[in-house]
Sequence to fold (167 residues):
Amino acid sequence: MSFMSIPSRSSLQGKTALITGASSGIGASTAVLFASCGVNTVLTARRADKLAEVKERCLAAYNDSGATCDENTVVVIEADMSSKVDLERVAARLEGRRLDILVNNAGMVRGREHAGDIADDDIDAMVQTNVVGLIRLTQAVVRHMKKQGSGVREPFPSQHCTMDELF
Ligand SMILES: NC(=O)c1ccc[n+]([C@@H]2O[C@H](COP(=O)([O-])OP(=O)(O)OC[C@H]3O[C@@H](n4cnc5c(N)ncnc54)[C@H](OP(=O)(O)O)[C@@H]3O)[C@@H](O)[C@H]2O)c1
Fold:
């Protein structure tokens, strides 16, 4: 897998990025940064109140970029990455919507205890969220991008590849 060059702000304008774990931290900052480049954003996470705050920040940044907002500028979808049903709902919400960029950011660290002391629930939560959920969503998004004929996937944290390189 090769690295692609960092896209210019102007080349990003008008694109749409789906950012998971957009309610805080790196995901929220990434969403606002994209919005400041005139990128439409689809924000997912579990905490609706935090997502609403990030949506407001994205709209402000998007406005500052000089682009005109509409109902598709920032779309919020509450979803638990560990829930198959939630991810199917996310995929359904993407229908009919162009998607150019996926930022697979949602995740957490559980089970910091020594090996042998880690709780089963922590193992399940980590794997279902960070691994299974990420793969399920990526599958859905890649299918979506294949149908529309283009897109860029960004596996967290640092690898980029184009659709041509993926398939
Ligand atoms: N910060 C670092 O130094 C560092 C280093 C290496 C890797 N990472 C990874 O980078 C990503 C972002 O880190 P961060 O520091 O920005 O963490 P953060 O502030 O805790 O953000 C994590 C995000 O993931 C979401 N999330 C967690 N569990 C989820 C679930 N089951 N379903 C849906 N969303 C879920 C959270 O949203 P809700 O709680 O609202 O659902 C939140 O928006 C994480 O995957 C983390 O493991 C971070």
Remarks:
- Residues 12-148 form a domain with the Rossmann fold fold (CATH 3.40.50.720).
- The chain has one domain: 12-148.
